[in-house]
Amino acid sequence: MKADSEKAMETMFREYYPFLCKAIIRVLPDAHLAEDLAQDVFFDIWNKRENFSINTSLQAYLRRAGINRALNYIRDRKIRWDDEEKIAFQASNLTDASRKIEGEELKQKIEEAINQLPERCRLVFTLSRFEEMSYQEIADQLGISIKTVENQMSKALRILREAFDEELKGE
Amino acid sequence: MTSKEKKGFSEWLAAHASGKEDERALKQLWEMTDSYQESYRPDVEEGLSALKKRMELGASPSGKVVRLNPASKLLRIAAVAAVLIVSGLALKNYLARPVPETVATAEGTHKSVPLADGTIVTLNQNSRLTFPPAFNGSKRKVQLEGEAFFEVAPDATKPFVLETEKVAVTVLGTSFNVRSMPGEPSVHVFVKSGKVEVQLKATGKTYQLTPGDLLTWPGNSQEAQPVKVADENPIGWKQGTLKFREAPLNQILTDIQRQFGVAFDLKNGARLTCPFTISFEKENLRGALDAIEASCPLHFGKAVNGTISVTGECCK
C-alpha cells in the first residue's frame, strides 16, 4: 500500500511539478528557489496524505499553495515597502532602443525587462498579470495599501512601455 | 484572453489608461508579456529524486529554503488556501487512482496504441498519449500532446473524452483526428466517421462535427470554423500522402502547412486560386515544395522559425 502511494505521488509529481515551478518562477524569478518551494508543496501533501482534502482542482490548489510559499519567502527577506527605490532601471541596458525586434529576441528582452524591474514593482506586476489577482487582493496579500499597488503598477507599466517603445509603436 | 484575464486587464485599463493610445499600448504589453518564463523547464527527475529523499527520511528539509513558522506567517497569507481545504476530492483517492501509462513517439516515427476498451490510437511523430490501464470511471478519458488518429470502440454508456491543452473532444464511437502540437498555436480536428463534440478550452464554445468536417482553430482569435473537406488529407500523415484533384493552390498550401507544421508567408499577395491536380507520396516538406515550384513560377524560401516566405505569381 505504501509502495502504491509512492507510485501515485510520483505520477502526480511528474504531472504537476513543471506547471507548479513555472507558476512560482513568474513571481519569484529564481529557478533554484522556485524548484525548492515546489518540492515543499509536494512534500507537504505527502505528509498530510491521510487526511487531506480540497474542494477545488488539484492544479488550482497546488498553484495557490506554491504562490503563497513564494510570497512568504519574499516577505521573510523583509523587503521594505516604504523604501525609496534604490535600483535605477535603465532601458538602454537591454538593447539599442531604436531597433524593432521580434521572435525569440523579443521574448528574451521581455524576460530581462521584467526581471530587472525593482522588486516590489515586479511583484505587483506579476501578481496582476499572471496570478489573476485584483489590486485589492494584491494589497491584502502583501500588506500594503491599494494606492501603493496602483503606484507600483503605474511604475512597472511605465518602465516596460519605455523599454518596448519601438515594439509598441504602430501595428 | 480568458475571462479571468479580461478582468485583470480591465483593471489595468481603468487605473492606467487615459485614451486610445494607452489602451492599445497596454493591450500589446499584456499580450507580449504572455511569454514571460515560457522557456523555463525544471528538471523533473532531479526534483523527484530530491522529493523522494525527503519522503524516505520523513523529515522536513534543511538548509536552503527558509522554513516558515506555520502559525504566524502562513495564517495571514494562506487565508485563500484555507478556504480551499474544506472537503470534497480526497487526496487519498487521487493518490490511489490507477497510474496512467504514457506512450510517446520520436521525430519521424508513428505508433499504434491499443487501449483497454478496444480503441486504437495511431500517434503521429513528436506526440504523446496518456491513458489509464483500464477505464473504470463513467468516462473514457485520455490526454494527447501532438497529433493522433483515433478509432474509438463504440460504447454508448461511456463517452470517450480526449483532452489536449487547448480542446476537449467527446465521442461515443467514431474515428477522428486531432492535431494539437505544443508550439503550434492552432488546433485541427477532423472527423472520419460518427459524431464528435469539440470544446475549445479558451472560449468554452462547443462544436458538433459530422463525417468530413475539419474544424480549425487558429489559436489567438476566438472563432473556429468547421469546413467540409472531400478528401482525407487531414489524416494523410498516416500514409504519408496528400492528394489533390482540381484543388485551388491555397487549399494545397493550407494542407501542407498543417501536415508539416509550418506557416507560409505570402509576399506580394500572390494569387493562389487556380486549380491543381497533384499528389505527394511519402514526400518530405522540401520535396513537396519542389514539386509545386516545378509546375508553377513560385518560390519557397528557407524556413525561418517555422515560417516560409512565398514569392512569385502562380495563377494569372
Number of helices of chain B: 8
Number of domains of chain A: 2
Q: How large is the radius of gyration of chain B? A: 24 Å
Distance between the termini of chain B: 41 Å
Structural class estimated from helices and strands of chain A: mainly alpha
What would you say this structure looks like, in words?
The complex is a heterodimer of chains A (171) and B (316). Chain A is mainly alpha-helical. Chain A has 2 domains: 2-76, Rna Polymerase Sigma Factor, Chain: A; 91-163, Arc Repressor Mutant, subunit A (Orthogonal Bundle). Chain A has 7 helices and 1 strand; from the N terminus they run ααβααααα. Chain A has helices at 2-25, 31-47, 58-76, 103-115, 119-130, 135-142, 146-163, and one strand spanning 53-54. In chain A, helix 1 packs antiparallel against helix 2 and helix 6 (135-142) crosses helix 7 (146-163). Chain A is globular. Chain B is of the alpha+beta class and 316 residues long. Among the domains of chain B are: 100-228, Sandwich (Jelly Rolls); 240-312, Phage tail protein beta-alpha-beta fold, CATH 3.55.50.30. Helices cover 26% and strands 31% of the residues of chain B. Chain B has 8 helices and 19 strands. Chain B has helices spanning 3-16, 20-32, 44-57, 70-77, 79-84, 91-96, 249-260, 285-294; strands at 89-90, 101-104, 111-114, 120-123, 128-131, 140-151, 160-163, 167-171, 175-180, 187-193, 196-200, 206-209, 213-217, 225-228, 241-248, 263-266, 275-281, 298-300, 307-312. In chain B, the strands form 3 sheets. In chain B, strands 2, 3, 4, 5, 6, 7, 8, 9, 10, 11, 12, 13 and 14 form a 13-stranded mixed beta sheet that branches. A 3-stranded mixed beta sheet of chain B has the order 16-19-18. A two-stranded antiparallel sheet of chain B has the order 15-17. In chain B, strand 5 (128-131) and strand 6 (140-151) form a beta hairpin. At the A-B interface, helix 1, helix 2, strand 1, helix 3 and helix 4 of A face helix 1, helix 2, helix 3, helix 4 and helix 5 of B. Strand 1 (53-54) of chain A pairs antiparallel with strand 1 (89-90) of chain B.
